[in-house]
Amino acid sequence: MKKLNFFHTLILIFCFNQTAMATEKIVEGQDYIVLAHQGKTDYPSKIEVREFFSYGCSHCFALEKQLQPWLKKGLPKNVYFIRTPAAMNPTWEQSARGYYTSESLGIRQKTHIALFNEIQLQHKPLFDQKSLAKFYGQYGANLNQFNQLFNSPTISKKIEQSNQLAKLYQLTGVPSIVINGKYLVQGTKVNTAEIIDYLIEKDSQ
């Protein structure tokens, strides 16, 4: 086995210090908090990353610029990501119903960013059943099906579950990201994706 020369030793020290510095940047109580009331996840054998959001929230829209590339790079096999539209007030509830209805109709993936763009960039007030039905209709939603589902018991149950989780985690706003029912990252930070990865690694140990 070859001995490390002075140059290689310096590289190793530098890499170690860079890793330590990256870890030190993420601070409990500042970048994330440990939840007082921890929740059960959908798949206990995996680590859950759950995003609470609303389409009318500009900070949620800004967060997408980090989440999209983070998702595209691929998640570890032991991690899954789930979006939960917040329904903590009447306006948010309408948007959440639209989200879950689009999910039931199989068009959620192609409408998620499009709806954000319409509201945040085009400043269109798509916050009620009629306007949402018209929007989703442009992406293939059958209007009769959409309107039947919008206030159906199935969608209402999902709204109730969203509110129960928000209450459990004591959420006060969005965006909020809960990692494995244990850690909460609030708001949009320049290094939100890095914080998520750090907490995934922390919970994997």
From TrEMBL:
Residues 89-188 form the DSBA-like thioredoxin domain. Transmembrane segments: none annotated. GO terms for molecular function: oxidoreductase activity. GO terms for cellular component: periplasmic space. CDD domains: DsbA_DsbA. Residues 1-22 form the signal peptide. Disulfide bonds join C57-C60. Its main location: periplasm. Belongs to the thioredoxin family. DsbA subfamily. This is Thiol:disulfide interchange protein. It comes from Acinetobacter gerneri DSM 14967 = CIP 107464 = MTCC 9824.
